[in-house]
Amino acid sequence: MIEMPPLQFAKLNGIRMGYYDAGPMSDAPPVVLCHGWPEMAFSWRHQIKALAAAGIRVIAPDQRGYGATSRPDAVEDYSIEHLTGDLVALLDHLKIDKAIFVGHDWGGFIVWQMPLRHRDRVAGVVGVNTPHTDRAPVDPLQIYKKRFGETMYIVQFQDPAHEPDRIFGENVDKAFDFFMRKPMPRKHANVGEAPVGGIGASSKTNLAFPQMVAAYDPGKDPRQKILSDEEKKIFVDAFKESGFTGGINWYRNMSANWARAEGLDHTVRVPSLMIMAENDAVLPPSSADGMENIIPDLEKYLVKDSGHWTQQEKPDEVSQVLIDWRRRRFG
């Protein structure tokens, strides 16, 4: 039986957002959990339960374009300003002054942006797998193209005809079978084991995810599943309803986000924690090297024997790290 708090809704920042809110309302600062792609607040089910049981208030939204939250049509409505603005508006709705923002995958990129853009609303930041970096010297899409070629999924996601969206939408069940597995041990790793995130991967890694999902045969995949059948059904049903375009539109703003970030001070001036996963092929622990240079108050923690879906692969360990750090730094 999967336990989740009741889903609540708020009208904010031009959308209707679905979110979960658990733990004592009096606890401050609360922890806001931000998911990545292709996920939703349900990805944090283990942490919601554990943090609430530890007496910590925890809030987990389905972010713009996902799950129970609105999916605007315009690509521009998924800019970094909108995505960080949604989190500020959620705090306003809940009458919360400051929060600790925890983000995995794309959610990690969003939470590292929060203290750069909304410093007065951020008590602390935790990145799960996703490092914080200074602004790239050139458009990130040019880096992806040069390093991985035109078939790399983020490059493909720029397709105005939405072909990747269609492929995933026609193969939802296969997509979650493909993505939500533990990586093979390193000596056996090959195509199909790379997860979804930033630019830490080797240029040999096959990142043509739409085509890989279309051709995928779950029966021939030796990797261990992360999700139970019941858990997978929740993801599959949600994405059959929502489609993938909302989440992919986050990627379609990467060049515009990069252009508008010129001149933005990328130093993070709040207590921060970087949780790294030993076997994440796209966001390896080495991608977090040098974060200390732009985050003066940074701790790091390595989760061993975990691939990309760290909070679901190693839920108890991730939950305990969050609880310990939160208590140590914020009482």
Automatic annotation (TrEMBL):
Top-level taxonomic group: Bacteria
UniProtKB keywords: Hydrolase
GO MF annotation terms: hydrolase activity
Domain AB hydrolase-1, first and last residues per copy: 29-315
Listed Pfam families: Abhydrolase_1
Name the UniProt record assigns to this protein: Epoxide hydrolase
Source organism: Tardiphaga robiniae
